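Q: We require from you a single protein entry containing the residue sequence and its fold in token form, and nothing else.
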Amino acid sequence: MRPKDLKYAIQLTINTKQNLLISGAPGIGKTDIARQVAEDVCSRNGGRYMVLHPVCDDPSDWKGLGFPSADRTSAEFLPFGNLKDMISAESLLICLIDDVGQAPESVQAAIMQVVRERRINGLMISEHCRFVMCTNRRGDKAGVRGIIEPLKSRCVIVDLEVNDDDWRLWANEHGMPPELVAFSKLRPGMLHDFKPSTDITNSANPRGWGEVGLLQLGGVPKHLEYELFRGCCGEQFAAEYTAFLRTYRDMPDPDVFLANPGADLPGNESTLYALASALAYKATRKTVDAIFKVAMRLDAEYSTFLVFSMIQRDKNLATVAGMAVWAQKYAPYLL
């Protein structure tokens, strides 16, 4: 399932009061997407959300603390912490249960009663609670023990996949560096080059790409780029991306094309993607006319990348006059 489809699935299961279990490789955005949807749903409908980490829990965190009754003939359970919130919620409460597959079976068994039976040890869970769970897979070497059958059978299970178009949409909306966005178009297969390992190394995934973007936005010195990028996404990514950055920095100044949209275009693929991304980053109401003139001169692949990146960064630019002229020319490539 693509990230954009997962967002819809999360909203739907919240509305239908069903439990959702999201499975997928580490670092591809399961929890982040769930959190984004929860924030959006709560902002529109009221309520709140909380992120739970059962791998750190004891069964008592989910069933309450036992204590003897007054006559010492039986025991009762006292809810506390997150469980108390689930019982007392008087408005929407979205519970994001992260890394549930790493939790001990005893904790999973307690969660099972909470999310499906909506009661545990005689304590009723509020009707306002909704449950969204995330887990890695057993083959990911992420410490996943598996999920007990009675818990997973109480969930709608979906598998999240990496999609480079969806990642670029996220990157543009969140102000990631234009050179990183351009590189994702040039080398889409490297967005998720996950290799499970117990070695102290990372491999490329969307979360690692986001970390690289934050380092760049923070002003990482050139002489540290390779080492730090390798720490985020591994050796191959660091080698190829630092090489691409040299191309990006050596390309013609994008301001030249804003002043003269008819200036000579570069001739190689890497530089064209770099230029398209840089122009998209500079797009404003004042510069958009010149940018569309450049876009009309580019082959469809580079032109659509430029215009989509520009609009993802500023949706208001989709209403300018040049958009209609551009769309008429490139309409066959938008299907």
In short: The domain at 3-159 is CATH 3.40.50.300 (Rossmann fold). Residues 100 and 128 are 21 Å apart (CA to CA). The mean pLDDT is 91. DSSP finds 16 helices and nine strands in the chain.
